[in-house]
Amino acid sequence: MNCIFCKIAKKEIKSYLIYEDDISIAFLDINPLSRGHILFVPKKHYKTLSEIPDGELAELMKSLKRVLNIVEEKLSKNYNIINNCGKIAGQEIEHVHIHIVPRYGGEEIFLWKTHKLTEEEAEDILKRLK
Ligand code: 5GP
Ligand code: ZN
């Protein structure tokens, strides 16, 4: 498969690896949003988190937690965890990955443009989700 993250997982492509175990790897993003922006990646190819079988996902969360512990200890206790799922949501690499973006203060990122939730919108969405 021509997947860049599969190739990184198999060490066919160089990465700045910060963590590895049997099921996952974590390495530096080559276009960091902040210092120490890390990608946490399952070694097995899945496109989205929801595709991963429950047992595997549970194990992956344990691995992710180990990476978070490293980030908290060595970089910052403040960080954003992001998963872009689907093209419209910004997923460029179709191998599921979780961004860990350490925050130190003053970063001009994640300026979300929100709107006030109306009664009508809330009721409509609740109807769809139930
Ligand atoms: P997405 O937009 O799919 O959520 O995020 C993909 C991320 O992978 C981007 O932040 C991009 O900078 C990073 N990326 C793309 N190609 C490579 C690569 O070859 N090596 C590394 N380390 N990161 C990559
Ligand atoms: Zn892959």
TrEMBL record:
Residues 4-110 form the HIT domain. It comes from the Archaea. GO terms for biological process: nucleotide metabolic process. The active site is at H97 (tele-amp-histidine intermediate). A motif (Histidine triad motif) lies at residues 95-99. Pfam families: HIT. PROSITE patterns: HIT_1, HIT_2. One of its GO terms (molecular function) is catalytic activity. InterPro entries: Histidine_triad_CS (IPR019808), Histidine_triad_HIT (IPR001310), HIT-like (IPR011146), HIT-like_sf (IPR036265). This is HIT family protein. It comes from Candidatus Nanoclepta minutus.
